[in-house]
Amino acid sequence: MLDTEPDISDRFFSDFDFSNGAVAAVSGGSDSTALLFLLKHHLDRTLPAAKLLAVTIDHDLRPGSAAEAQTVASVCAEHGIAHRTLVWSGRKPTTGLAAAAREARYRLLAEAAEAEGIRVVVTGHTADDQAETVLMRQVRAEGTRDERAGEEESSEEGRGLAGMAPVTLYDWRTCIARPLLGTRRAALRAMLKRRGIGWIEDPTNVDQRFERPRMRISLAGDDGEARFAQAIAKAGQAAAERDDLGRRAAALIRAFADRPASGLIRLDRVFAHGEDSEAAVYALRILLATVGGVSFLVDQARCRALFERLRSGTLCATLSRTVVDARRSGIFLHREARNLPAAVPAQDQALWDGRRRITLSDRSGGLVIAPMGAVVAKRSVREGDVPASLLRRALAAEPALWRGAERLDFAGGGDVPRPMASVPVVSPFARFLPSFDLLVAAAVAALIGAPPLPPLPFRGHDRDGAWAKA
Ligand SMILES: Nc1ncnc2c1ncn2[C@@H]1O[C@H](COP(=O)(O)OP(=O)(O)OP(=O)(O)O)[C@@H](O)[C@H]1O
C-alpha cells in the first residue's frame, strides 16, 4: 500500500491538524504498527517538522508485556521514531479489570500527549474492531430486551450501536482519533507484509474466555463477511441518528433551559410539550446526569416514564441523584440532598461530587471543602423570581470552603486572592466525549457555566464543534 500508492495515507489523516504533533498509541499489534508507519509516512511528506511520539502502555498484567513494549521501542528506534513506554503501576482491581485497564491506558496516553504539548492521540482501531464492538453491544442489548419483553425498542440500543466514534474528546482536552476505523485489518496486515514489517500477536486476542476474541472468531466463519457488512451498515446508520438526536437535544436545551442560580437548572414547561419528545428525553437524561454529577445516563425507559408524568402536571421526583421539581412556573432540577460528599481536605484538580473541578491556589493547607448545608444556604438566599425554597435546596448542595469554623468566600473578596475555584463539568462527558455528542455537550457546558469545548484539531466539524456527517 505504502509502496505502490505513496499518498494513500493522506486519506486517513488529511482531516486532522497535526501541527502540534501526534501521539501514536502502539501496542505492537498489526493495526497499531500499521497506523504508526502510515502516520510517519504522512507526516514525513506533509509536515516533516511535526513531532511524532509512539507510546506503548505496559499494563503489567501478563509476564511478556514489558518485553513486548521493548520490541516496539526497538522497532521505533530502527526507524528514527521517538518512543516511550508507560507502565500502569497502580493497584489492579479484581473485577472490571478490562475497563480499569482501558481507563488507565487513555489516562496515560493523554498525559504523555499533554507533557509534549500534543493535542491528538491516534489509535489503530479498525473496521473489524468496529464490527466486533457493534455486534457485542447488539448481543447485550438483545439480552436486556428479552428481560423487558413487550416494551418499545429502547433508543439506548441505537446509541450504543453507533459503535466507536471517529474522534473522542478525553478529559475535555485531548482528542483521541481513530483514523483507521473504515479500514480492514487484512489490508493493513498485507501492507505490513509487503514492507517486511513484523508485529506482535497478543495471546489474549485469541483467548476464547473473552467476549471479543469469540466474536472475532465468529466473524471469521462462513457468514462472517455478510455479518461484518451488516454491522458496519448498522453502525453508520446509528451514528447518523445519534448525531442528529444530539443536535436536536442541543437545540431544545438552548431554547428552553436556563440557570437561575448556581446548582439550579430551570426548564420552561414548553420543553415537556414539544413534538420532539425523543430529543427532549435525551436532553433530560443528559441534564439529570449533569446536575446529579453522574458519569452515565439514566435508563431510557425510566426517564421516558418521568417525562410522561412531567407532561401531565406538577410533581417532585428524584432520578440520577437529581431532584426534578415540576411546578407551574417551570421544571427545576437540582442535586438531591442525599449522599453528598463528606467534608474533605480541598485538593487541587479533584473532581468534587462528580460535578465540579477544584482548582486550589491557596496551598497553605487546612482548607476543607463540604456541601454548603441548609443553614448557610438559608442565610444566603434572597427572594427573587425563583421560589426561595428551591434556591435554598440547590445552594445547600453546592460546595463551600472552610478553614476551621470560618467559611471562606470562593471569590476572595476585595484584594484577597481566591483560595479556590470550583468549575462545573458536564458529568456524563467529562471523561469521554464521543464526537456524536459534541453539540449537546457544548449546549450543556454553556448552560451550566462549564469551560467551552477546546478548539478541536480536526476538520469535518462545523463551527459549533459538531462532527459533520460524511
Ligand atoms: N498497550 C497498549 N499501548 C498503546 N496503545 C494501545 C495498547 N493497547 C491498545 N492500544 C491502542 O488501542 C487500539 C485498539 O486496541 P486493541 O486492544 O483492539 O488492539 P491490539 O489488539 O492490542 O493491537 P492492534 O490494534 O495494534 O492490533 C490499538 O490499535 C492501539 O492504538
From TrEMBL:
<keyword id="KW-0819">tRNA processing</keyword>
<dbReference type="InterPro" id="IPR011063">
    <property type="entry name" value="TilS/TtcA_N"/>
</dbReference>
<keyword id="KW-0067">ATP-binding</keyword>
<dbReference type="InterPro" id="IPR014729">
    <property type="entry name" value="Rossmann-like_a/b/a_fold"/>
</dbReference>
<feature type="binding site">
    <location>
        <begin position="27"/>
        <end position="32"/>
    </location>
    <ligand>
        <name>ATP</name>
    </ligand>
</feature>
<dbReference type="Pfam" id="PF01171">
    <property type="entry name" value="ATP_bind_3"/>
</dbReference>
<comment type="function">
    <text>Ligates lysine onto the cytidine present at position 34 of the AUA codon-specific tRNA(Ile) that contains the anticodon CAU, in an ATP-dependent manner. Cytidine is converted to lysidine, thus changing the amino acid specificity of the tRNA from methionine to isoleucine.</text>
</comment>
<dbReference type="GO" id="GO:0032267">
    <property type="term" value="F:tRNA(Ile)-lysidine synthase activity"/>
</dbReference>
<comment type="similarity">
    <text>Belongs to the tRNA(Ile)-lysidine synthase family.</text>
</comment>
<dbReference type="InterPro" id="IPR012094">
    <property type="entry name" value="tRNA_Ile_lys_synt"/>
</dbReference>
<keyword id="KW-0963">Cytoplasm</keyword>
<dbReference type="InterPro" id="IPR012795">
    <property type="entry name" value="tRNA_Ile_lys_synt_N"/>
</dbReference>
<feature type="domain" description="tRNA(Ile)-lysidine/2-thiocytidine synthase N-terminal">
    <location>
        <begin position="23"/>
        <end position="216"/>
    </location>
</feature>
<keyword id="KW-0547">Nucleotide-binding</keyword>
<keyword id="KW-0436">Ligase</keyword>
<protein>
    <recommendedName>
        <fullName>tRNA(Ile)-lysidine synthase</fullName>
        <ecNumber>6.3.4.19</ecNumber>
    </recommendedName>
</protein>
<feature type="region of interest" description="Disordered">
    <location>
        <begin position="140"/>
        <end position="160"/>
    </location>
</feature>
